[in-house]
């Protein structure tokens, strides 16, 4: 939470000659962070949620006094003394009857003041309120905002007569469900049940305490008498009500963080002083103070050895004592143990590590040396992946022309459906930020399509992404599976060639593994956006592993989605070296006319099986229905001759013709 | 044709090829390797070679073929050697792809930490409340949770581990790593993963990346954290970059820190170097905030089954995008670009 602190206001509590820059520097190093100074006057300070005691002018002054002193700057927290609250001899108004129907109340302070005049606040107060982002109204209203900011405990002003006209009772209780009330900004709310409310004798809600006042009892232009009021309620209850009603006032944000109830008295006295001075109001009742179970102070013990463990240096006992005393703690050091009793406003100091933090920050983190740790190393690599192979794959793809993409894991309803899974088979966010990012994706393909569509100027585009997909399970966390997905609008042969190159780079084929592309029949196609779909299978001896899918999409875009884990499993770090054959080979090209229905891959496989001396068969080019293949003949033992090739060639032509209706162009 | 010894003929041809000078490469090919070329003729003589000499003949034949090919190459080259190349011709670039800048950053970050013995891991992006908050000393409804704009998954909560959420930070890896290592330090973990928060503007995206460091062992102290931060700052941003830690509050570390690195644009002065006296536009008073860190809270160690009286540890977790965009001269002012899929942007990396 950020708080704005005007310098002049701060110096009403802090006696120092330190410059604003020094205050900014040293506070930031050892305390709350001063993010900037506005107009060379107003500090913008981030106070962490555990330090509600610093969320005020006084709180910051207290921190600054300790920190500046340590930095060698003269600084002191000024004492404040407010007068005791005394009833005006000629005024006498009864306090309302306060009835407690809940145990969540830690303290209530109240006093009645009368003869209140409706006057403007003094210029200084108005300026300061403006500086801290609060609109000034009139003194009767401004005072409570001003005090809250200065001392850090929220307070409230009721129109006294409005309460008395409703029977003069304030019943503090947990609300039943469904009761309507209107807050002072004229917004209607309905109780959810369980939040703490104040009710009048007739059951009407007259306040949402610790959060916001209600319109029916707030100060208005006819107010003559006020009930100046402070309550301290259970912080969790305040937070629950504030969050569920989405009323996030300054009061709520402070009260939900356990403001020290001991602060109440000072705030009460300061308020009475200001109402008297600025509004002419007179005290018309005794001070009401309900403080049922004052908690005794807790002592935290920490061994000197632990302090040294955390800091890596040994602090002198006198230094430890001095720092903690400066922080208003009681300290005793005996038998190597430091016993620390923090003041009531430092309820954040609860365990040894909290004491260490106080010592370390005030000593100055910047004063501690910087040293890398020594010691034993942990050799426990992630069993779920291999980051080197991941990196190799990414670099290889990038080097052969593929652009890596990072897209959101969250997709729209349409993109979810494009996966071929029903919406119910997706994980859905309960509170999405945008409609187009509601479902956790089961495939990366639609996201990559969106990216190709979003770059219409790029004619030949090949992109890939490595990211998780999410498959819900009946119970427990979803399966979160890393997919390597490729999408390209280039020709299928080029894309497949790149895939084969990748597999070559991962030495998949060198280890005698074979890729099988198993095309599905139409009704088996998973993705509705795919025209054709095939399983990619790696065959290793007798075992077969599905490693992903291949899809032909609209506009003949090619998508390949691989399971990274399986891909890593079949990849190898090195090839199996195959002896270099030194005999001469014969290379020749043969062209065949094929039917449209001929599967060229099958034809090539059939050619390869004709004779073991056919070392390689490659498709060279396609012209209309003519397909040219290059054949390499080679014998491991001797130089192969033309005469030996002749019968092989004839078998090739025969197999082509008989089994594939592929006719040789020309004669042999 | 006289019946000469085939081996002798082969050897003669070897000499002859040596002497071929004023001939074009293509003519040489036809003369020797053509359908009725000299090589073909001589190799056809194999049938006349007595069996005991066949091996020698084969070897000589091989030698001859290699020689012819060698000569062909040398003729081609000498032709090329005479041609002058226009050096002003524009280069022809093959299309190359690019690793996404986030991948580049993650690789660099991981390598820096791996050098000092950290193990890289990756933990679930969809995880239970327990690992994301509760085991990290953040009870339900605690105000500290407000800082994490959490996405919840619309599904029944687990009766033990609570609601399913998108991880708001990589800190869910802390207790998970302790559990994976069976609560046995030493632990040196670097967890890099996608994280999610309900936010979107020029400096925040719903999805982003974090890296989380966790070190647990006997005698780990604040100085070690400072040492690690300084080492990272110098490795990632260049020599001379400094780090500093300032007090902060996280429920899962105690003490907790905000980590700053010195600004390399203004050299840590906080002022522009044009003598205008104006403040540096890139940093706050000479420093950049990069993220949080702290000494692991005893309750977190306990949640991971580690005795806080014996072991201490530190942890840090920062945004990859934020850390990367602070690189000198990178000039990226809108991190949404990383997720735009805009090739004009991505191809610059």
Describe the overall structure:
The complex is a heterodimer of chains A (668) and B (349). With 668 residues, chain A is of the alpha+beta class. Chain A is 29% helix and 27% strand. The mean pLDDT of chain A is 95. Chain A folds into 5 domains: 2-77, Phenylalanyl-tRNA Synthetase, Chain B, domain 1 (2-Layer Sandwich); 97-290, 3-Layer(bba) Sandwich (Phenylalanyl-tRNA Synthetase, Chain B, domain 3); 300-365, Phenylalanyl-tRNA Synthetase, Chain B, domain 1 (2-Layer Sandwich), CATH 3.30.56.10; 387-570, Bira Bifunctional Protein, Domain 2 (BirA Bifunctional Protein, domain 2); 585-664, Alpha-Beta Plaits. Chain A is built from 19 helices and 34 strands. The termini of chain B are far apart. In chain B, strands 1-4-5-9-8-7-6 form a 7-stranded mixed beta sheet, sandwiched between helices. In chain B, strands 2-3 form a two-stranded antiparallel ribbon. Chain B has 11 helices and 9 strands. Chain B has helices at residues 6-19, 25-33, 38-43, 54-82, 101-115, 129-132, 172-180, 222-237, 298-303, 320-325, 343-346, and strands spanning 119-121, 126-128, 164-166, 187-196, 207-217, 243-250, 253-262, 287-296, 312-319. Chains A and B meet through helix 2, strand 3, helix 7, helix 10 and helix 12 of A and helix 4, helix 5, strand 1, strand 2 and strand 4 of B.
Features:
heterodimer, A: 668 residues, Phenylalanyl-tRNA Synthetase, Chain B, domain 1, Phenylalanyl-tRNA Synthetase, Chain B, domain 3, 5 domains, five-stranded mixed beta sheet, 29% helix, elongated, B: 349 residues, alpha+beta, 2 domains, 11 helices
* Biggest beta sheet summary of chain B: 7 strands, mixed
CATH domain fold name of the largest domain in chain A? Phenylalanyl-tRNA Synthetase, Chain B, domain 3
Globally, the shape of chain A reads elongated
Placed side by side, the strands forming the largest sheet of chain B appear as 1-4-5-9-8-7-6
The class by helix and strand makeup of chain A works out as: alpha+beta
CATH architecture of the largest domain in chain B: 2-Layer Sandwich
Helix content of chain A: 25-40%
Strand content of chain A: 25-35%
| Mean model confidence by pLDDT of chain A | 95
Give me the number of helical elements of chain A: 19
For this structure, what is the CATH class of the largest domain in chain A?
A: Alpha Beta
CATH class of the largest domain in chain B: Alpha Beta
Number of domains of chain B: 2
**Radius of gyration of chain B using CA atoms only:** 35 Å
Sketch the topology of chain B as an H/E string, one letter per element: HHHHHEEHEHEEHEEEHEHH
CA distance, first residue to last residue of chain B: 70 Å
Might you state the CATH topology name of the largest domain in chain B?
A: BirA Bifunctional Protein, domain 2
The radius of gyration of chain A is 40 Å
Strand line-up across the major sheet of chain A? 21-25-26-30-29-28-27
């Amino acid at each position: 939470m950020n708080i704005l602190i005007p310098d002049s206001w701060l110096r009403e509590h802090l006696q120092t000659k330190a410059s604003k820059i020094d205050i900014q520097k040293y506070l930031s190093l050892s305390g709350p962070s001063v993010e900037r100074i506005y107009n060379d006057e107003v500090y913008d300070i981030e106070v962490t949620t555990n330090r509600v005691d610093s969320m005020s002018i006084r709180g910051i002054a207290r921190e600054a006094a300790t920190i500046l002193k340590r930095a060698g700057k003269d600084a002191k927290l000024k004492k404040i003394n407010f007068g005791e609250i005394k009833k005006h001899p000629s005024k006498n108004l009864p306090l309302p009857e306060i009835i407690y129907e809940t145990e969540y109340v830690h303290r209530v302070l109240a006093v009645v003041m009368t003869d209140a005049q409706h006057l403007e606040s003094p210029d200084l107060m108005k300026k300061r309120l403006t500086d801290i982002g609060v609109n000034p109204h009139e003194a009767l209203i401004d005072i409570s905002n001003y005090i809250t900011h200065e001392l850090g405990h929220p307070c409230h002003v009721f129109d006294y007569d409005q309460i008395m006209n409703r029977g003069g009772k304030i019943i503090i209780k947990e609300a039943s469900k469904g009761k309507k009330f209107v807050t002072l900004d004229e917004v209607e709310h309905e109780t959810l049940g369980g939040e703490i409310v104040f009710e009048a004798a007739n059951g009407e809600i007259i306040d949402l305490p610790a959060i916001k006042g209600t319109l029916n009892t707030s100060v208005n232009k006819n107010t003559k008498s006020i009930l100046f009021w402070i309550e301290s309620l259970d912080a969790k209850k305040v937070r629950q009500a504030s969050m569920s009603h989405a009323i996030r006032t300054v009061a709520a944000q402070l009260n939900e963080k356990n403001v020290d109830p001991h602060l109440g008295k000072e705030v009460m006295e300061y308020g009475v002083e200001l109402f008297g001075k600025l509004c002419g109001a007179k005290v018309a009742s005794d001070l009401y103070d309900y403080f049922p179970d004052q908690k005794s102070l807790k002592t935290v013990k920490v061994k000197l050895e632990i302090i040294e463990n955390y800091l890596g240096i040994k602090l002198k006992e006198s230094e430890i004592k001095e720092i903690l005393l400066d922080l208003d703690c009681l300290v005793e050091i005996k038998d190597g143990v430091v016993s620390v009793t923090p003041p009531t406003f430092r309820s954040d100091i609860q365990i040894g590590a909290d004491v260490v933090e106080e010592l370390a920050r005030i000593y100055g983190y910047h004063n501690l040396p910087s040293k890398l740790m020594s010691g034993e190393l942990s050799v426990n690599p992630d069993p779920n992946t291999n980051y080197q192979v991941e990196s190799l794959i990414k670099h290889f793809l990038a080097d052969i022309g593929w652009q890596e993409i990072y897209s959101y894991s969250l997709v729209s309803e349409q993109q979810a459906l494009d996966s071929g899974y029903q919406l119910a088979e997706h994980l859905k966010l309960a509170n999405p930020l945008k409609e187009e990012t509601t479902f956790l994706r089961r495939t990366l393909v639609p996201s990559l399509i969106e990216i190709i569509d979003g770059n219409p100027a790029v004619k030949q585009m090949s992109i890939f992404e490595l990211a998780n997909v999410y498959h819900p399970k009946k119970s427990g966390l979803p399966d979160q599976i890393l997919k390597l997905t490729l999408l390209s609008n280039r020709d299928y042969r080029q894309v497949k060639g790149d895939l084969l190159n990748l597999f070559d780079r991962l030495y998949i084929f060198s280890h005698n593994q074979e890729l099988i592309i198993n095309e599905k029949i139409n009704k088996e196609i998973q993705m509705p956006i795919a025209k054709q779909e095939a399983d990619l299978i790696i065959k290793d001896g007798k075992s077969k592993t599905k490693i992903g899918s291949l899809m032909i999409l609209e506009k003949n875009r090619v998508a390949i989605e691989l399971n990274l884990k399986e891909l890593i499993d079949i990849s190898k770090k090195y090839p199996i070296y195959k002896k270099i054959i030194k005999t001469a080979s014969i290379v020749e090209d043969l062209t065949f006319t094929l039917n449209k229905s001929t599967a060229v891959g099958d034809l090539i496989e059939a050619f390869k099986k004709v004779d073991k001396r056919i070392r390689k068969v490659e498709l060279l080019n396609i012209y209309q229905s003519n397909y040219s293949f290059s054949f390499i003949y080679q014998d491991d033992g001797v130089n192969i001759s033309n005469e030996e090739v002749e019968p092989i060639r004839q078998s090739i032509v025969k197999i082509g013709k008989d089994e594939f209706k592929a006719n040789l162009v020309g004669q042999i | 044709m006289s019946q000469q010894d085939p081996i002798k003929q082969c050897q003669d041809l070897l000499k002859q090829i040596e002497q071929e000078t004023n001939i074009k490469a293509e003519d040489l090919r036809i003369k020797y390797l053509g359908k009725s070329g000299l090589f073909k003729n001589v190799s056809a003589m194999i049938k006349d070679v007595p069996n005991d000499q066949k091996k020698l003949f084969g070897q000589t034949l091989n030698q001859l073929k290699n020689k012819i090919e060698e000569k062909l190459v040398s003729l081609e080259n000498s032709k090329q050697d005479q041609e002058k190349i226009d050096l002003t011709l524009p280069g022809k670039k093959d299309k190359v792809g690019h690793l996404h800048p986030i991948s580049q950053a993650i690789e660099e970050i991981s390598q820096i930490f791996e050098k000092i013995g950290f193990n890289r891991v990756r933990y679930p992006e969809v995880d239970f409340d327990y690992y994301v908050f509760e085991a990290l000393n953040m009870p339900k409804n605690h105000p500290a949770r407000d800082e994490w704009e959490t996405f919840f998954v619309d599904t029944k909560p687990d009766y033990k581990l609570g609601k399913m959420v998108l991880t708001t930070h990589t800190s869910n890896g802390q207790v998970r790593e302790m559990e994976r290592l069976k609560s046995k330090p030493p632990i040196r973990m670097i967890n890099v993963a996608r994280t999610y928060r309900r936010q979107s503007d020029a400096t925040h995206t719903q999805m982003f990346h974090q890296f989380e460091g966790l070190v647990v062992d006997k005698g780990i102290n604040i100085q070690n954290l400072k040492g690690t931060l300084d080492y990272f700052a110098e490795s990632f941003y260049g020599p001379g970059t400094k780090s500093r830690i300032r007090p902060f509050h996280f429920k899962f570390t105690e003490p907790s820190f905000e980590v700053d690195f010195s600004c390399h644009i203004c050299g840590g002065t906080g002022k522009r170097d044009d003598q205008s006296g104006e403040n540096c536009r890139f940093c706050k008073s000479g420093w950049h905030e990069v993220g949080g860190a702290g000494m692991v809270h005893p309750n977190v160690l306990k949640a991971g089954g580690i005795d806080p009286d014996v072991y201490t540890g530190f942890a840090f977790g920062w945004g990859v995008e934020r850390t990367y965009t602070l690189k000198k001269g990178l000039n990226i002012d809108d991190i949404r670009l990383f997720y735009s899929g805009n090739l004009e942007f991505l191809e610059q990396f």
